[in-house]
């Protein structure tokens, strides 16, 4: 496997992992680098670059360059489509939106993107992406049949299907800016069935949110809005302290 995957496996062996999502539209170029530096100093393990609006390859490239020179953790593209790819990043989450009604987001865009990923030298990390209600913007633009919050068994079905198809990671997404994160009972049910690492994101704003999800078995937490809106303040620091205090030496 690739270098970024090896790094993630090493990090996961010592406890929970945190990814900081930076939107190159809201935090372009050097601002992305500054945010990344602060986040990594507080213990974040990787920087995801992405957003739900059209990010140009130039915008993605400038942000990736700035992040890579600011931090020595991986810079990973969290794509909204083939146009967000840039050779300046280390890896790309090669993700299938499993509960979309738009086949492009399940597999067809991937057919177009795969040769570009290879040509750009990006490390692809296969990921099953599952949107849970309310889903927010990704739920709308992704034409998603969102998993109802009270249906952990359905989430588990999707997650296991992703694992059986060979995906390396499963991501339960409540949607960026969701009023509350994926429910803990759903995280617990999915985690109890799954062997591959479980990522949870969307609506995580406080230490309490992080504690609840980590206690339920989330292995990787993703936060974006909390830093875009509040910087590296109390919310972000609280989340990172919940993650880092669970780590072994
Ligand atoms: C969105 O899960 C991520 O794809 C992050 O969500 O912006 O709500 O932190 P937030």
Write structural notes for this entry:
- The protein has a single domain, classed as Alpha-Beta Barrel (TIM Barrel).
- Helix 7 (184-193) links the parallel strand 6 (169-173) and strand 7 (198-201).
- Helices cover 45% and strands 17% of the residues.
- The mean pLDDT is 96.
- The two termini are 25 Å apart.
- The chain has 249 residues and is α/β, with parallel strands linked by helices.
- The chain contains 10 helices and 8 strands.
- The protein is globular, with a radius of gyration of 16 Å.
- The structure holds SN-glycerol-1-phosphate (1GP).
- SN-glycerol-1-phosphate binds at residues 21, 173, 176-178, 201-204, 222-226.
- SN-glycerol-1-phosphate (1GP) binds next to strand 8 and helix 9.
Could you give a short description of this structure?
Helix content is 45%, strand content 17%.
Features:
249 residues; alpha/beta; TIM Barrel; eight-stranded parallel beta barrel; 8 strands; 17% strand; globular; binds SN-glycerol-1-phosphate
Helices and strands, with pairings:
Elements: H1 3-13, E1 17-22, H2 29-41, E2 46-49, H3 57-70, E3 75-77, E4 91-97, H4 103-120, E5 123-131, H5 136-141, H6 152-164, E6 169-173, H7 184-193, E7 198-201, H8 207-216, E8 220-223, H9 225-230, H10 234-245
Parallel strand pairs: 1-2, 1-8, 2-3, 3-4, 4-5, 5-6, 6-7, 7-8
Helix pairs in contact: 2-3, 6-7, 7-8, 8-10
